Amino acid sequence: MSHQLTFYGHSAWELKTPEGRLLIDPFFTGNPAATIQASEAKADFIALTHGHGDHVGDCVDIAKRTGATVIAVYEICEWLGKHGVANTHGMNAGGGFKFPFGRLKQTIAHHSSVLPDGTYGGNPVGLHVTLNSGTTIYHAGDTALFSDMKLYAEGGLDLAILPIGDNYTMGVDDALRAVEWLRPKRVLPTHYDTWPVIAADAERFATEAMRRFGVKVTVLRPGQTFAW
Ligand code: NI
Ligand code: MN
User: In the chain, N or C: fewer CB atoms in 10 Å?
Assistant: First the structure.
């Protein structure tokens, strides 16, 4: 139980490892599903999947308070720098880098990415993380289904965090195809039920993923943690 993934509602997650905490898409203020306030969030690193407000969220304030290094696409890092964030690590899709907690690679995501003030945010990404323990985690970010997900299955995936809320991202049926292609050992659904427009039946997703592909789905309510 040295590793934990905590769901904070919508697309906000905290990955706790022996080498530090990685906060992903820290959207607390204005997030009706959030169970903590931005001022309570802890982070050594913050990863952003794209520039939309429901993902950048409270990143600037949390980074300033904690001194965390923000990992994001280059254009978003430039914007963060102009907003007073001292520590950033710019990347782009297809590139990986070895951080203290493990290797993080930005993957493609089919979506859009503009920052809250209208600034161009580059392309959206997903995150593929290989922890020092060898555990592999794929956070798809906001994305449509795309068949290159099959490539991410090649090295074996332990955990996949997949959006199921439809409307802005994959819905349940496309996410089930993603499960078929990714073949992770376990899936954690995200980006649903925050607002009525992305209401989704996570229990149906879980039932079908097991029935059709034998893949376990752990449905976390905001504030809950999966540990291993
Ligand atoms: Ni988005
Ligand atoms: Mn979103």
Answer: N
Q: Which ligand is nearest to the CA of 113?
A: 1
88-104 as b/e: b if 16+ CB within 10 A: bebbeeeeeeebebbeb
Whole-angstrom Cα distance, residue 148 to residue 94? 12
- Residue 200 CA to ligand 2 centre (angstroms): 14
Find the 30 Cα to ligand 2 centroid distance in Å: 13
At 113-126, the pLDDT tens digits run 999 999 999 999 99
Q: How many helical (H) and strand (E) elements, i.e. helices and strands, does the chain have? A: 6, 14
pLDDT classification of 1: cutoffs 50, 70, 90: low
Contact 38, 166 (CB under 8 A): no
Of 21, 28, 27, 85, the closest CA to residue 51 belongs to 27
CA 1 / ligand 1 centre spacing (Å)? 32
Nearest to 32 by CA among 224, 222, 226, 225: 222
Distances in Å between the alpha carbon of 200 and those of 10, 160, 209, 218?
12, 18, 15, 15
DSSP classification of residue 103:
E
Residue 166: nearest ligand to its CA? 2
Question: Token digits for 174?
Answer: 């496309």
